[in-house]
UniProtKB/TrEMBL annotation:
The cytochrome bc1 complex contains 11 subunits: 3 respiratory subunits (MT-CYB, CYC1 and UQCRFS1), 2 core proteins (UQCRC1 and UQCRC2) and 6 low-molecular weight proteins (UQCRH/QCR6, UQCRB/QCR7, UQCRQ/QCR8, UQCR10/QCR9, UQCR11/QCR10 and a cleavage product of UQCRFS1). This cytochrome bc1 complex then forms a dimer. GO terms for biological process: mitochondrial electron transport, ubiquinol to cytochrome c. Component of the ubiquinol-cytochrome c reductase complex (complex III or cytochrome b-c1 complex) that is part of the mitochondrial respiratory chain. The b-c1 complex mediates electron transfer from ubiquinol to cytochrome c. Contributes to the generation of a proton gradient across the mitochondrial membrane that is then used for ATP synthesis. This is Cytochrome b. Residues 1-55 form the Cytochrome b/b6 N-terminal region profile domain. The chain crosses the membrane at residues 14-36. Its cofactor is heme b. It comes from Puma concolor. Keywords: Electron transport, Heme, Iron, Membrane, Metal-binding, Mitochondrion, Mitochondrion inner membrane, Respiratory chain, Transmembrane, Transmembrane helix, Transport, Ubiquinone. InterPro entries: Cyt_b/b6_N, Cytb/b6-like_sf, Di-haem_cyt_TM. It is a multi-pass membrane protein.
């Protein structure tokens, strides 16, 4: 069963929480880089950039 597995005493629920935080951080970095690649400061081409991302 899962309860009787021989695990070290220093592994707790905080390891799972830290892994989840790491996944969220990597996801935010990747989506931020993706949005930064499509950034434009011109107001005329900003709308076409948004429609390009949504397609």
């Amino acid at each position: 069963s899962f309860i009787d597995l021989p695990t070290p005493s220093n592994i707790s629920a905080w390891w799972n929480f830290g892994s989840l935080l790491g996944v969220c951080l990597i996801l935010q970095i990747l989506t931020g880089l993706f949005l930064a690649m499509h950034y434009t400061s011109d107001t005329m081409t900003a709308f076409s950039s948004v429609t390009h991302i949504c397609r």
